[in-house]
Amino acid sequence: MSHDGRPALRLPRRCAGVVLSILIGTHDAALAKSIWMSEEELALLPAAGPAWDRLRAEADKPAGDPDLSDMNQDNNVYVLAKALAYARSGEEKYREQVIEQCMKAIGTEAGGKTLALGRELAAYVIAADLVGLPAEQDERFRSWLRTTLTETLDGKTLVSTHEKRPNNWGTHAGASRAAVAAYLGDKAELDRTAQVFRAWVGDHSATYNGFKFGKNLTWQCDPSRPVGINPKGCRKEGRSLDGVLPDDQRRAGEFTWPPPKENYVYGALQGALVQAVILHRAGYDTFEWGDRALLRAFQWLHTEAQFKPVEDDTWMLPLVDHIYGTQFWDGSAVALGKNMAWTDWLYSKK
């Protein structure tokens, strides 16, 4: 037991390939620690209480069979629960199950679309990083991950989806792209992912303009310079559009007021937040880009649209509060997300 009465953390076994042996620059140094959260950070989290009990209960259940072609499958976040349970408790059974699930996931994206792969893949990558795959399995996993970036699925690739679709398709693709790049230690791929993400949040200092926006630009602050998140202070017809995600908000139709409660926006934010966290841990200042674009997006949804997240979007609230010091989350249990979960434990209120 630790000095505070919590179970002592047994650090996961990691193969040499997961931790870079030579660190060059701040990005690589941060990357070597972890993709999402380090063992040291996890050791400070409670191994008791309602959030932990929920995570542990799901970790104890069979995860099912991975299918990365099914964009609605929750297997990915159940596997993540097992990885977190192992990282906090050190119980080997969880690690064994994560390894098995990661191996089963290989190739299951075939026949699907990049939206499904974008939603599903990142959680498996984070789980693998948390437990440390044995050398043989890690080599196979890495080889497959490299192919997922450029594998053609229904005419698109993960990379092309991230670079062309400035909406929920693109943000989810970017999240998994970032996870793969971080796991592989590919700084060039991380740099490119960050460049695209910085442009998406509307930071015009980013040298990227390859997005293909929808024809309805009425939610854009400046239709001649469309962005993924509208700039600070943006107004139209006397109404604030500061923080709107125009290419997802347009799914509800042309600009009108009061604004429609368009759930595709939260779908895009799920991908954007995971992408931002992974890139931030790799050394990029993602949460400040675009005048704190991600924060402004949540503020607009809460104050202007009067549209709080429900069901599988609620997992974002503890994370946003943790990042920005806001109080969007009321402390209640959150649901499983499309690509991330368990944030009421990871970022629990003290």
Shape: globular
The largest beta-sheet arranges its strands as 1-2
Reported for the largest beta sheet, the result is:
2 strands, antiparallel
Percentage of β-strand residues: under 5%
User: Domains counted in the coordinates: how many?
Assistant: 1
Average pLDDT works out at: 91
**Using DSSP, what is the number of strands?**
2
The CATH architecture can be named as Alpha/alpha barrel
CATH uppermost class? Mainly Alpha
Q: Structural class per helix/strand content?
A: mainly alpha
Fill in the CATH topology: Glycosyltransferase
Helix content: 40-55%
- Given the structure, what is the number of helices? 15
CATH superfamily: Chondroitin AC/alginate lyase
What is the ordering of alpha helices and beta strands?
A: HHHHHHHHHHEEHHHHH
Q: Say what oligomer this is.
A: single chain
**Rg estimate, integer Å:** 20 Å
Distance between the termini: 21 Å
Low-pLDDT segments: 1-32
What does this molecule look like?
The chain is an all-alpha fold and 350 residues long. The protein has one domain: Chondroitin AC/alginate lyase (Glycosyltransferase, Alpha/alpha barrel), CATH 1.50.10.100. The chain is 49% helix and 1% strand. Strands 1-2 form a two-stranded antiparallel sheet. Strand 1 and strand 2 form a beta hairpin. The protein is globular and about 60 Å long. The protein starts with 24 loop residues before the first helix and ends with a helix.
